[in-house]
Input
Amino acid sequence: MSMALSRERRIRRGLPLAALCAALALLAALFGAQERAGASVPPPPSGWTTVWTDDFTGAAGTLPSSAEWIVDTGHAYPGGPANWGTGEIQSYTNSTANLSQDGSGNLRITPLRDSSGNWTSARIESRDTFQPAAGGTMRIEGRIQMPNVTGNAALGYWAAFWTLGDTYRGNYQNWPGIGEFDIMENVNGLNTVWGTLHCGTNPGGSCNETNGLGSSRACPGSSCQAAFHTYTFEWDRSVSPETLRWYVDGVQYHSVNAGQMDATTWANATHHAHFLLLNVAMGGGFPNGVSGVGTPTSATDPGHPMLVDYVTVLTSGGSGGGDGGDGGSAYATLQAENYTEQSGVVAETTTDTGGGQNLGYLANGDWVRYSGIEFGSTGATQFKARVASGAASGISGLIEVRLDSRTATPVGSLAVAGTGGWQSWQTIPANISRITGTHDVYLTFTSGQPADFANLNWFTFSAT
Output
């Protein structure tokens, strides 16, 4: 999506000064446009695999994909703490005035103030959850430009790219024990990025709540507000002690490791999947604490969006490839091709978001096994699968979940029929009997017809 500009151009010797200035101005404009335009998601480095990504390439004025994102609304989760637990004052909406793709490869989250002084903005969270496999590493990355506003006009702006532990969903009272990774936070238009781990108990505890264990630095080169920068978080279970790292434009500025707290606190914060969030809040404890005054103020200027070019999740190493496959967490995204054993299935290249492979040609009697999947003590009650089907009308089947034996009674199943094509992907949920502990998970494919009825890209479990 970015504009290509040849670096072989040369300005002719002896060019008149006015023409030279005009040429330099044109080059500056072109490079500026390149900086503002959406950039393609970079390919994974050697040894890494892309698990999930969103490049926000939808049409101008549209919401982000509902298959990938949940749009939070109002002042709180149902039954959760008021003002999202932070004291922020805005109401989140699903209006495209606050949340929309711009048609140029970016997502815009725009705080607005109405004539009565009420603020609105937007907050989204990924439907999928992610974690590295034991012994592996996961990288979460986003290319983002902060709201381009500074000084008194920026007081109260609170832009964030972050995660929450998946067990927060449906509970909303177990923060910060379930873990929060703030990959990027920025307040009050300052040229500063903050990275923070929240964990343990509040107040105080191992993570010094409510502050958390954080660090900050200026954005390299251009300010955080004036240009896009790449914000990266690494969750490394391949080293001892396990370590979390924060980067901006590839420069590490913060880390926290398991040796800084007791084993239970660390495990509660990190040994389960997390979901991703993007939002711009207005006011609240962080911007108020930094500014020393209540924010936003009458001088705060609405209408400055945070621009998100892309978000991507990559994994490296570990049992099961680090993405929740063989030997991984049930609450991670389990890539279907990472099976331990199979009968009748074929792996093929997928065109689904994130690339990689899917299992194809699934028909009656086929099955796959994933060994050592960890469900923990809370228990999973829902199964969700990413499926596609080009089967003809009247052709359908079931994906059944069985534990420890492919002939065991299914704990649940979901039905798959034609989705419009073998690469037309849908995410389908199904309720299952509660599962705890560690199990070999079998997926069996059952149909009343002999024809192929499904492709499968990934699956996951949840406690809600």
Summary: Residues 1-36, 319-326 have pLDDT under 50 and may be disordered. The longest helix spans residues 17-36. The CA atoms of residues 390 and 421 lie 4 Å apart. The radius of gyration is 24 Å.
